[in-house]
Specification:
- A 4-stranded parallel sheet has the order 2-1-3-4.
- The chain starts with 8 loop residues before the first strand and ends in a 10-residue tail after the last helix.
- Strand 3, helix 8 and strand 4 form a beta-alpha-beta unit.
- The chain is mainly alpha-helical.
């Protein structure tokens, strides 16, 4: 018997926007988009309501595709456990000494999905999928004005990977046959 991957992914908007705008356009890679839709509907890939909203601001082919997935139910970030973890994420950015006030101001903006994505992954034990890269050189002598998802995930023991990791784990193939 083949063991199925039990890992569940929550996807950052850049992991849909970047492929759409560059290497996996709808006309070039329709199987990729069918694969993503299938995994969204089977709850192997989760979508936060704020990420859904970020993508729909685009008013483009990507937002139309997302809106046409009628059975899709994005996760509501207003869940009490998610809100508690959101506070923990912001408190860490404020108190750890690695970030300037600009980082906290950016991540506490009502439209910024990043801290909510991490808080949701913490509650549900999801792996975050993003193209963001770690700052790599965080230190208290020269704090950063930009918090990055992978760095904050590391602090909270949340797995954070890229799109290609997820595609591999979910057995994407370009033939159109998706498990």
């Amino acid at each position: 018997m083949i063991a199925r991957n039990s890992e569940v992914f929550i996807i950052d908007s850049d992991s849909l926007i970047v492929p759409y705008r560059s290497f996996y356009t709808f006309s070039f890679a329709p199987n990729f988009w069918s694969f993503i839709e299938n995994k969204l509907l089977s709850n192997k890939i989760m979508l936060l309501d704020m990420v859904y909203d970020e993508i729909n601001v685009g008013n483009d082919e990507l937002s139309n595709w997302l809106q046409n997935i009628s059975a899709l139910e994005p996760i509501n970030h207003r869940d009490s456990d998610i809100i508690k973890n959101y506070g923990d994420v912001l408190n860490y950015i404020q108190d750890c000494g690695y970030y300037k006030t600009e980082a906290l101001n950016d991540w506490s903006n009502a439209k910024t999905a990043d801290p909510w994505l991490i808080a949701t992954a913490m509650v549900n034990h999801y792996t975050i999928i993003t193209f963001e890269r770690s700052n790599g050189s965080l230190n208290k002598v020269s704090p950063s004005k930009n918090a990055k998802i992978p760095d904050i995930c590391k602090q909270f023991n949340v797995p954070c990977k890229d799109l290609y990791y997820m595609m591999d784990k979910l057995s994407f193939n370009n033939s159109g046959n998706h498990i």
